[in-house]
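Notes continue from the previous slide.

Worked example: a multi-chain complex. Inputs as given:
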Amino acid sequence: MSSLGLLSTRGVSLSFGGVLAADAIDFDLMEGERLAVVGQNGAGKTTFINICTGFIKPTSGQVFFNGADITALSPRAVTRLGVGRSFQLPQVFTEHTVRECLMLAASAVKQRRGFLLPLSQAVDANEVDETLELLQLAARAHDLAGSLPEGQRKLLDVAMALVLRPKLMIMDEPTSGVSTDEKHGLMAVLMRALDERQVTSIFVEHDIDIVRRYATRLCAWIAGRIAADGLPEAVLRDPIVIKNVIGE
Amino acid sequence: MRLRLLVVVLAVAVLALGLFFPWVKTPVLVALANGLAVSGVIVLIRAGQVSFGNAMFACLAGYGTAFMAREWQLDALLLIALSCVLAALAGAIIGFFIVRYRGIFFGMLNLALSMVLFSVLGKFGAVTGGTDGLRFDRPTLAFVHFEREGFETALLVLALVLSIGAGWVVQRYFASVSGQALAAIKTNETRLEYLGISAKRVFWGGYVLAATLCGLGGSLFALTQGLVTPEMGYWVRSGELVFVAILGGSGHALGAFIGAFVYEFMKLYAAALLTGAWQLVMGLVLIVMVFVAPKGVFGMIERHLRSRSKA
């Protein structure tokens, strides 16, 4: 087997009935990369993320993280190995405050869950506060997560994964549902936070401007396969990508 | 601080009620026993789950108390402790598979199991006393032999202490990592899993705590009556526990006890004044509460305390 990256797949396939959502995907992500994933709806981008984070088991093939085979692991186990994830629809605890959300996330790192141990004593408060500052959520710390506007919910979604100190962050459409004016500001905050924590990242994105500005590598997904892979500018000039992903 | 003062005032009031009006001692004891069971239901509601079968743990602990009192003539304190262990064990075993279910499936599976217990207790009369139940002699309490009145008074003090202790444990649990994770099950189980936290394990812990609290209430109820019947585990009893949780408010353990007292005395007076139609009063009160005070009586008190502290 060829040498593995931080995240690698070998021959990963998945079919839903007659539809091939992932078609023998061989993929390597190296440490320090900022990979953008583009593709039309239904191309298999989110399915690939779900396979890499243990949410869906592939029909065949293997997934490796940091050299270990994680194909059969649960999302919980994959998370513990150092893979953080954010979602297209932010997954936050809407009835907790922003700070409580992060505290609960931080408590998962230490695995201290004494039956009567107060949450406030189970976490490193500095770590929580630093992450709040980093994602520019400190001003909303005591607001309910459910009351946040979409952009800040997206930031909280990432913050909850980031407080776990992951090696890899996979973000599914971090700018979807956010107004065009706010997209770049949101991505700037996210990328600065990931750089500061030295986290390798994958993000699914539809906005080509965002891809050009923030990605160091680009994969274009077509019908469950990686149709083009390389530097963003090169991939974006690929005629197949122009025809099937970007549009004429 | 205001809440602590409220707890002290209510505890003194309950004690005074029981001591100076002996004829309400039994309803007060029943209310405290129910309050303990309801505090278990509140734990499950924190996870967004409603069980229509939690009275089975109260019933199981009640029968445990009766069996042990009849067979081994144990002290009441030991009977309560062992009955709680029994309820906790049952909760741990049942919880092992039931925590995989959510919503209506969780609620109905609990109901189904409680009805299995109800039927077994009713049908195996040779062991369980059948539908007549099991009667047992008044045990010693802290190794002291009390007459009926003295026993009830001592039991009242014990029930009050246990209720305050259980309320403290529930509140402390709600503020803990496990309790906060339990509350997160209600809003986002997916994120919980993606934090590396097992939602099932967290829920299992909450389920066992709920079973133990229901068991504590059931054991106290059995000691108060000196009699246990399968009715203790009938699904209507479980429904009453949910009713009381909504009435009192599920935001705080205190709501369970306030609800239990309101319910017990409302039932007492409604049954006396409108014999045969007391359920009508209960139904109307529940409808009014859902519309006017969805967070229950405790929610109203909490709102009042907040507005006063702001003023």
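Summary box: The first strand of chain B starts at residue 134 and ends at 135. The first helix of chain B runs from residue 2 to 20.
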